[in-house]
């Protein structure tokens, strides 16, 4: 319990007209409101406001320290699909912070169940996939997805629209992209390769549906882009590329 009585101002913070980034006291009011109300309209608005504020790194830590992650996380079990989606979006923004991931990982199984049992291309599925992507960019939590790899492939290979990947995704592998992003997308490539290896898909030449993430990442254009990064000015990027090149 956050031990703070909600005031009218807590609801005012969710009405969409309040543009400022919330401070710790306001975030605490918002979390209390989220924890104490049963009104789905207020819950959804509070989650949107929290999610927007969780896009700022300082607030990612504050929300965790205020005990906000389980308050948000509990809402992914809500029967209202829109509330579930907004909770996943908020967790997604919070998951950018590595310390937050330690607390968010307890929801991975639930998120996987929702992603793979729900309607294809639904808002909940897309929000869940975004969260799972953030949670598995590094190796820390990938093992938690092992039981869902086949389902994940199914979604990415059969989905249309937003679950498929635009070819502009490959522009993330350009040398001018910020180092942090480059390292993330290179790690993503590495991790997908590892998952394919676990599934045995790399034992034979795999065929992937055009427009899928796998089709892009295992195409010639992506291979050329990654090989070009061997001349990158940053040693960490270069080192990562050298570990990947033998696999492409």
TrEMBL record:
Classification via Pfam families: Arm_2
Armadillo repeat-containing domain location: 22-165
Membrane topology per record: Single-pass membrane protein
Signal sequence interval, chain numbering: none
Record has Magnesium as a keyword: no
InterPro entries reported in the protein's UniProt record: ARM-like (IPR011989), ARM-rpt_dom (IPR006911), ARM-type_fold (IPR016024), Armcx_regulator (IPR051303)
SUPFAM superfamilies in the cross-refs: ARM repeat
Transmembrane segments: none
GO BP: negative regulation of intrinsic apoptotic signaling pathway by p53 class mediator
SUBUNIT field: Interacts with the DNA-binding domain of p53/TP53.
Role description: May play a role in cell survival and cell growth. May suppress the transcriptional activity of p53/TP53.
Name recorded for this polypeptide: Armadillo repeat-containing protein 10
Natural source organism: Mandrillus leucophaeus (Drill)
């Amino acid at each position: 319990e956050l031990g703070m009585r909600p005031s009218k101002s807590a609801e005012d913070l969710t009405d969409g007209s309040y543009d400022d980034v919330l401070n710790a006291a306001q975030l605490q009011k918002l979390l209390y409101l989220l924890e104490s109300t049963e009104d789905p309209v207020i819950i959804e608005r509070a989650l949107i406001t929290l999610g927007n504020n969780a896009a700022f790194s300082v607030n990612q830590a504050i929300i965790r320290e205020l005990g906000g992650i389980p308050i948000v996380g509990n809402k992914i079990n809500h029967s209202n699909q829109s509330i579930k989606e907004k909770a996943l979006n908020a967790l997604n923004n919070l998951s950018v912070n590595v310390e937050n991931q330690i607390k968010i990982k307890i929801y991975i199984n639930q998120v996987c169940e929702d992603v793979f049992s729900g309607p294809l291309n639904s808002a909940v599925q897309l929000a869940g996939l975004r969260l799972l992507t953030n949670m598995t960019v590094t190796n820390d939590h990938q093992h938690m997805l092992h039981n869902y790899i086949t389902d994940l492939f199914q979604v990415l290979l059969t989905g249309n629209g937003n679950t498929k990947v635009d070819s502009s995704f490959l522009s993330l592998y350009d040398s001018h992209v910020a180092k942090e992003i480059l390292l993330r997308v290179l790690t993503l490539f590495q991790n997908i390769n590892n998952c394919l290896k676990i599934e045995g898909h790399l034992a034979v030449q795999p065929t992937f549906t055009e427009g899928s993430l796998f089709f892009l990442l295992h195409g010639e254009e992506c291979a050329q882009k990654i090989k070009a990064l061997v001349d990158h000015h940053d040693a960490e990027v270069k080192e990562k590329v050298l570990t990947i090149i033998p696999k492409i």
